[in-house]
């Protein structure tokens, strides 16, 4: 029966078909070979029944874009019928950092408010923030000077006092935009 309960089928997760192909939601119609009869009840079968037919699952899918997207690539392995994680090289990590999203999220948060307040009362903080903004602007245009950005981040953290909540917010922002794969908050 074709997807009597689509949501329930989707909730079961992804399965790899008997031929070892990449995971998919259980289809409502399946034929292993061209001459075979079409199977129309895969979504209704138990996991054990699916395994008996050669299906593997539910498959642990790679993380959706998030922290690991910025540090690893994932490739389907037809032999093991699982995803292989490979750490990205430094060049690829740098390429994946989303500086524009970092900036957009930063200016909406309490961390930036604290930075602006400090910049309005102390020349040193103003200089640090101005330099950081200029370096981010270059990075958003594809010309990131990672050494200078790290030095700027370190200077800001040493020169401006942030609460524990603000530091946690900043770490989350680093992780969600890929900044954390290149830069440290120290």
Give the tags:
2 domains, 8 helices, two-stranded antiparallel sheet, mainly alpha, 186 residues, single chain
Could you characterize what this model shows?
The structure is a single chain. This protein has helices at residues 6-11, 47-52, 90-96, 99-107, 110-121, 123-140, 146-159, 164-177, and strands at 14-15, 24-25, 72-77, 82-87. The protein is mainly alpha-helical. The protein has two domains: 1-61, no CATH class; 92-181, no CATH class. Strands 1-2 form a two-stranded antiparallel ribbon. A two-stranded antiparallel ribbon has the order 3-4. Strand 3 and strand 4 form a beta hairpin. The protein is elongated, with a radius of gyration of 24 Å. The model has no long low-confidence stretch (mean pLDDT 88).
| Approximate helicity band | 40-55%
Query: How many β-strand runs?
Result: 4
- Radius of gyration computed on alpha carbons: 24 Å
Which range does the strand content fall in?
A: 5-15%
Tell me the layout of helices and strands.
Blueprint: H1 6-11, E1 14-15, E2 24-25, H2 47-52, E3 72-77, E4 82-87, H3 90-96, H4 99-107, H5 110-121, H6 123-140, H7 146-159, H8 164-177
Antiparallel strand pairs: 1-2, 3-4
Helix pairs in contact: 4-8, 5-6, 6-7
Provide a short characterization of the protein structure.
Helices cover 46% and strands 9% of the residues.
């Amino acid at each position: 029966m074709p997807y009597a309960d689509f949501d329930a089928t989707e909730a079961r997760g992804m399965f790899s078909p008997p031929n070892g192909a990449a995971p998919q939601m259980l289809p409502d119609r399946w034929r292993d070979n061209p001459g075979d009869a079409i199977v129309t009840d895969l979504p209704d079968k138990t996991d054990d029944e699916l395994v008996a037919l050669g299906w593997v699952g539910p498959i642990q899918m790679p993380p959706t874009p998030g922290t690991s997207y910025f540090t690893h690539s994932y490739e389907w392995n037809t032999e093991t019928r699982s995803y292989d994680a490979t750490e990205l090289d430094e060049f690829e990590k740098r390429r994946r950092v989303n500086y524009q999203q970092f900036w957009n999220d930063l200016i909406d948060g309490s961390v930036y408010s604290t930075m602006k307040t400090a910049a309005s009362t102390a020349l040193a903080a103003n200089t640090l923030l101005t330099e950081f903004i200029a370096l981010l602007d270059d990075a958003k245009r594809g010309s990131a000077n990672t050494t200078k950005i790290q030095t700027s981040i370190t200077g800001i953290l040493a020169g401006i006092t942030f609460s524990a909540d603000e530091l946690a917010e900043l770490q989350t922002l680093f992780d969600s935009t890929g900044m954390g794969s290149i830069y440290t908050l120290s």
